[in-house]
Amino acid sequence: MTDFVEVDFLGVETLKSGDAITVRYRLGDTTQVHVVDGGYIETGEKIVAHLQSTYGTSHVDHLVLTHPDQDHANGLRSILEHCTVGKLWMNRPWLYAEQLIDRFETYNSVV
Question: Quick one: which of 69, 8, 64 has its CA closest to 35?
Fold first, then answer.
């Protein structure tokens, strides 16, 4: 079969920002599905439906959360509940808070 890359930007259904991106690609004999951000809670249901109807799968090889704002993170709940996920990629800033706190003038505590 022919190699391909397919990228879909799903509507987040708001005037505010937010992202919900699905990627499916084939390289040789390997096909993978990635989801980058999940938009709001309602967006997650649309992503699951899109994966099932367009990609023909409920499996996500790589689920990426770029940052934990609600317009990127909340929709991931539906994906985690209704799909199998190979790897979850996310930033966990609390792990580095002690080392970074001095760089922020308006913060004096990591708690």
Answer: 64
